[in-house]
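USER: Note each token:
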Amino acid sequence: MSLNDSFNGGGEVAPTAYCTQVYVEVDYTTPVVATNAATGVNPVSGILNATLTDDLGDTYDGRFQWGKTED
């Protein structure tokens, strides 16, 4: 018998209850990250730096997004 079914006493299962909303609360803490100054910058390359000071015991991918900004 599922959550949406109830036993009607005659050996049959009839839907009588419905779940229309579910509330889920999840505890989540973001990792502590700091962007640092770029180094070795020249017209064709540079090194982008950041520090992950607390990974909360998980594995994270590090990525940088770059491009023109609108003034």
The beta strands are 5-7, 13-15, 32-42, 45-54. The mean pLDDT is 76. The longest strand covers residues 32-42. Residues 20-58 form one domain.
